[in-house]
Amino acid sequence: MKEKLKVLKILHITLCVGMVLAYLYIGNLTSLDFLKFPELDTEVMVYLCIPFAAIFLGNFLFRSQLDKIDHKKSLEEKIPFYQGASLVRWAILEGAALIILFLKPALVVLGIFIIVYMIFLHPSEARIKHDLRHTGR
């Protein structure tokens, strides 16, 4: 379990650091101008939906993949499925953050919100046991 958890932690850290570096470099976060929110119009409203849609879709796909795991398997046997489900969730969040960064740089604060949420999804043994507790029902 420890080795598989270590791999998952390294992947998570790499994805988070890559996103932070992309936002620092491409998002030009050297000044505090990114905190100014543009005027609300229909285009901005669409981009406001992206983080919420990514969080919902990522969690939905994560849960649906975990629900497919046979509950008779041991925790060790469930870990590869958990890794795949986690990667799907993180990829959706990363994609949403990149979409915001490249298509609407004025809303980088939304991408920062996604990155912070992604950081809070860090894998731990307790989280894995909690998430896999109700699988296969």
Structure report:
The longest helix has 29 residues, at 75-103. It is elongated and about 55 Å long. 23% of the residues are buried. It contains 5 helices and no strands. It has 137 residues and is mainly α. The model has no long low-confidence stretch (mean pLDDT 89). It has helices at residues 2-26, 42-67, 75-103, 108-120, 125-132. The chain has one domain (2-132). The chain crosses the membrane at residues 7-25, 45-62, 96-120. This is MFS transporter. Keywords: Membrane, Transmembrane, Transmembrane helix. It comes from Maribacter polysiphoniae.
Give a quick set of tags describing it:
membrane, transmembrane helix, MFS transporter, 137 residues, elongated, mainly alpha, transmembrane, 0% strand
Low-confidence stretches: none
Taken from the alpha-carbon principal axes, the silhouette is elongated
Tell how many strands the DSSP assignment holds: 0
Helix-strand pattern? HHHHH
> What percent strand?
under 5%
Determine Rg (CA atoms, Å).
17 Å
For the record, give the distance between the C-alpha atoms at the N and C termini, rounded to a whole number: 23 Å
Mean pLDDT: 89
Helix content: over 70%
Number of domains: 1
Structural classification: mainly alpha
- Largest sheet entry: none
Q: Counting H and I runs of at least 4 residues, what is the number of helices?
A: 5
